Amino acid sequence: MKRILGVVEKAAASDTTILLNGETGTGKGLLARLIHEFSPRRGKPFVPINCGATPEGLLESEFFGYRRGAFTGAVADKPGKFELADGGTVFLDEIGDMSPELQVKVLRVLEEGEFERVGGRETIRIDVRIIAATHRDLEEEVQKGTFREDLFYRLHVIPILLPPLRERKSDIPFLVDHFLEESARRNRRPPMRFSPEALQSLMHYPWPGNVRELRNLIERLVVLKEGDLLEVADLPEKVRSAHAGRESRRAATALPGEGISLAAAVMEFEKALIRRALEQAGGVKYRAAELLQIKRTTLLEKIKRYRLEGEADES
């Protein structure tokens, strides 16, 4: 994250297009706003557009506005988001969800800085900086033909990949402190903290929803918890069980003080798997071999080696 923020600081000073890539909830929107705040355009509008949340039929008018009478309900002229962002930054979130037809028009804005409102003939010129974000692999989408290659390369000037939270767990204590302070202030609650055991549980959870999931969890705990100490019992079951599962695996693989024979341990594990496969297959060897994804002859050899003949039938 320090390397990413270093790139952000350098890129923000320019008007270069930036493409943010990462899983949902990794903080792409926050980073886009940070880029804007670091840039010379910080005194101008920052206008986000969620390309995945806006209905396809409304995206063009959302982007470029419309003239009165352009369609049913268009009773007056209305500027679009690009026009409103003139001088500032447009953040195109989930740009990978944009239709090929709209991609053409966005490419024109990037290359020429101009467009027409829906139903209008007047060319409008604007000066905006574009930051785009997606959770998709746009190179793969280009190969599939669902995303324009020329637009991809126009966006892919400074790509920034945001890693998921499970790959940067050392950030969790800092994020936790920040979100605790932020949420307590917003909800007019006293300062709160996690017990060391509860913090360890947060560190071991894989966070499929990334930073957003962590932030929402802390918000819920701050609002509902009585007292100022958040403990393991206050955490959702899925967070507690992730920690408990890890501790169980550690206990199962703990080494005795005198050490252990790896070969013997592997042999015992293999014998246990074969017994389980034979039991599940009702003693039928070819079916047990299929369950273990090995050849029948290989299974027969191992049964003989481990003297498990009495646990299998003759088939």
Report on this structure.
With 315 residues, the protein is of the alpha/beta class. The chain folds into three domains: 162 residues, 3-Layer(aba) Sandwich (Rossmann fold), CATH 3.40.50; 86 residues, Helicase, Ruva Protein, domain 3 (Orthogonal Bundle), CATH 1.10.8.60; 50 residues, Homeodomain-like (Arc Repressor Mutant, subunit A, Orthogonal Bundle). Helix 9 packs across helix 11 and helix 13 crosses helix 14. The relative contact order is 0.10.
Task: Give a short overview.
The chain has 3 domains: 162 residues, 3-Layer(aba) Sandwich (Rossmann fold); 86 residues, Helicase, Ruva Protein, domain 3 (Orthogonal Bundle), CATH 1.10.8; 50 residues, Arc Repressor Mutant, subunit A. The protein is 49% helix and 12% strand. The N and C termini lie far apart (58 Å).
Shape, principal axes of CA atoms: extended
- Backbone CA Rg: 28 Å
Provide the number of structural domains. 3
Task: Give the termini distance in whole angstroms.
Answer: 58 Å
Per CATH, the superfamily of the largest domain is P-loop containing nucleotide triphosphate hydrolases
Strand content: 5-15%
Q: Classify the fold: give the CATH topology of the largest domain.
A: Rossmann fold
Tally of contiguous helical segments: 14
| Largest sheet report | 5 strands, parallel
